């Protein structure tokens, strides 16, 4: 089977097993970003949403659902004249709560801010 087809095909659950590694669902993640250079500084901002289909065969006869996960990322990059750069990155996630049939699990992502400092040294 072609490798691209294998990756795009969702795993099918094995009804004889309680735990299956496949999700038996699809997810879609559209993203949109913008970047603007202002002298030695570059500002980048992007947004994304991950949307999930339901798994209507979860534990044989239950439905597993997950709300979308929304993501906003920002990057502030400073490039020095000698090729060295430093960046301050942040990511914010919201949403993602899950439910099975009639009860809600709420194990999804609520609010997770992420902050990182990166750099590069060129000789």
Automatic annotation (TrEMBL):
Top-rank taxon, per record: Bacteria
Keywords: Membrane, Transmembrane, Transmembrane helix
Lineage, uppermost ranks: Bacteria, Pseudomonadati, Pseudomonadota, Gammaproteobacteria, Pseudomonadales
Stretches that traverse the bilayer: 76-94, 100-121
UniProt xrefs under InterPro entries: FApF (IPR025737)
Pfam families registered for this protein in UniProt: Phenol_MetA_deg
Protein name as it appears in the record: Uncharacterized protein
